[in-house]
């Protein structure tokens, strides 16, 4: 079987009506999706040799890695076992703080953060089948408390900026959880089924472990350079600016690795749902190898491009939704938040995590994939279901809690040895922990996104895989569409009544 046949629908798995052979078709519902013929037509159209997409952004990412790698090596080596080995201090004479240190003074703290992050990430993978849902429930409820406790500790240590920052984070997290508390049962149902799918594909767990090792290798160099930055003799302002640059770089690098896994898992899940079972005879040979090859070659540029924006936009969208639902009748504030909400919703059309499924299956560029995925959801009504689901937010909460634990462990040791550098080491260590755990949890999020894409393209695929889950999804979709319809009717009626002049007496 050649590459062009990789994602083709098997004639033995679906008949001309789009239903599995011998199975009853899915019942019609509001916002029903395209038929199996439409899906087959689109896939046959995509059965051409895959072209390289978004090559410019792949070049930018690779150049960024080289430049950041050189800078990290230079800054780390400059303070390794000898102060100002490369004579960098001569460029910072105007902002000398005269409190220099050595790279090895701070490098062990990052070793602790990396070790804690790795242990937590492995725990996620090991407990994926048995306790993943319980861990996610715990993450939802513990994050607010953890942020509040850290805020109190920061105020106690007279770190007022960080105390306020963590207090604001705890408040926003509390408001968000309160605003979506009624959605959590359905969210946990989706997460449980996604975990079930991932557990049926043990090879994707191996992919996550492999990329975790790749990330750890990069973190050795990154922590070496960052330890050198913390040990520099320049003032706190200069150190913080350098740390921000390196943290943004690490965030992008970690997002790229996570989204490579995302593309690989999405391709595997899509194949399983199309062919009905992992062991189906119609499954193409070596699907994991081909998914991996596409992700790191022709689709790599699209992954680099999307990784710059999707995580930040998704996080902003969750927070705005949580605040928006608690504003009440403050018209001025509601107007401002609505403006931001619609702006973010527009950005979501061009930068969303569902694009990676389209990239995995059809090999499109990122913007084309994101637009097609969002239009598919809106045309079928599934967007209403996605807006109700909080799976991504719950997974993100687990990642943040894990990062906070890693940062806290490194921060406590730093507090004992170098109390003036606690926040620098703690905040950068937190990012390390989040990225390592994110490489483990992304497999579940990838399964969630793939399930929604398949449900929008042909609900029969989900019905054949898990009929009970399909019925609950269909019921919830019907409820959400009815809710939106009633709200639109109320808004239209109220506006019409307000514009109708009263009859003269």
From TrEMBL:
What is the first-listed, main subcellular location in coarse terms? membrane
- What GO cellular component is one of the record's annotations? membrane
- Report biased composition (Low complexity) as residue ranges: 8-27
Transferase recorded as keyword: no
Report residue spans for region: Disordered.
1-38
Under the heading InterPro entries, the entry gives: Choline_transptr-like
Q: Where in the cell is it found?
A: Cell membrane; Membrane
Single GO MF descriptor: transmembrane transporter activity
Query: Per UniProt, what is one Pfam family of this protein?
Result: Choline_transpo
Provide the topology term for how it sits in the membrane.
Multi-pass membrane protein
Spans traversing the lipid bilayer: 55-77, 107-128, 140-158, 164-184, 204-234, 240-273, 294-313, 393-413
Keywords in alphabetical order: Membrane, Transmembrane, Transmembrane helix
One GO BP annotation of this record = transmembrane transport
Please report which protein family the annotation says this sequence is part of. Belongs to the CTL (choline transporter-like) family.
* Protein task: Choline transporter.
| Descriptive protein name | Choline transporter-like protein
* Species, as recorded: Solanum tuberosum (Potato)
Taxonomic classification, please? Eukaryota, Viridiplantae, Streptophyta, Embryophyta, Tracheophyta
């Amino acid at each position: 079987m050649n590459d062009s046949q990789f994602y083709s629908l098997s004639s033995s798995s679906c008949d001309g009506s789009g239903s599995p052979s011998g199975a009853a078709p899915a019942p019609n519902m509001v916002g029903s999706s395209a038929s199996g013929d439409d899906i087959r037509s689109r896939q046959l159209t995509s059965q051409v040799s895959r072209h390289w997409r978004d090559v410019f952004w792949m070049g930018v990412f690779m150049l960024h890695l080289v430049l950041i790698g050189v800078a990290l090596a230079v800054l780390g080596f400059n303070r390794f076992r000898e102060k100002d080995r490369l004579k960098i201090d001569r460029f910072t004479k105007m902002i000398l703080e005269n409190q220099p240190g050595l790279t090895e003074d701070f490098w062990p703290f990052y070793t602790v953060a990396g070790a804690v992050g790795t242990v937590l990430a492995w725990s996620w993978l090991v407990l994926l089948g048995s306790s993943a849902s319980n861990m996610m429930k715990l993450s939802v409820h513990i994050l607010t408390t953890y942020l509040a406790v850290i805020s109190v500790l920061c105020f106690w240590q007279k770190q007022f900026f960080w105390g306020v920052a963590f207090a604001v984070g705890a408040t926003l997290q509390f408001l968000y959880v309160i605003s979506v508390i009624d959605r959590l049962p359905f969210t946990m149902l989706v997460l449980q089924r996604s975990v079930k799918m991932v557990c049926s594909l043990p090879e994707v767990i191996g992919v996550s472990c492999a990329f975790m090792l790749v990330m750890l290798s990069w973190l050795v160099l990154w922590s070496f350079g960052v330890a050198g930055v913390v040990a520099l003799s320049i003032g706190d302002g200069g150190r913080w600016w350098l740390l921000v640059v390196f943290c943004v770089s690490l965030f992008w690098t970690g997002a790229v690795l996570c989204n490579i896994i995302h593309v690989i898992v999405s391709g595997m899940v899509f194949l399983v749902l199309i062919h009905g079972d992992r062991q189906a005879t119609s499954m193409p040979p070596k699907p994991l190898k081909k998914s991996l090859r596409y992700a790191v070659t022709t689709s790599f540029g699209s992954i680099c491009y999307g990784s710059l924006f999707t995580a930040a936009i998704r996080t902003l969208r969750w927070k705005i939704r949580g605040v928006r639902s608690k504003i009440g009748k403050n018209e001025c504030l509601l107007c401002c938040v609505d403006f931001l909400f619609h702006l973010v919703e527009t950005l979501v059309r061009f930068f969303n995590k569902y694009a990676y499924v389209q990239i995995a299956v059809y090999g499109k560029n990122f913007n084309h994939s994101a637009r097609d995925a969002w239009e598919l959801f809106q045309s079928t009504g599934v967007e209403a279901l996605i807006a109700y689901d909080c799976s991504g937010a719950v997974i993100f909460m687990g990642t943040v809690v894990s990062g906070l634990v890693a940062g806290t462990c490194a921060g406590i040791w730093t507090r004992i040895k170098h109390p003036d550098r606690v926040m620098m080491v703690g905040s950068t260590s937190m990012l390390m922990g989040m990225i390592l755990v994110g490489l483990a949890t992304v497999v579940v999020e990838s399964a969630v996104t793939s399930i929604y894409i398949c449900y929008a393209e042909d609900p029969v695929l989900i019905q054949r895989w898990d009929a009970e889950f399909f019925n609950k999804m269909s019921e919830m979709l019907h409820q959400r569409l009815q809710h939106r319809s009633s709200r639109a009717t109320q808004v239209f009626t109220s506006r019409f009544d307000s514009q109708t002049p009263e009859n003269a007496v």
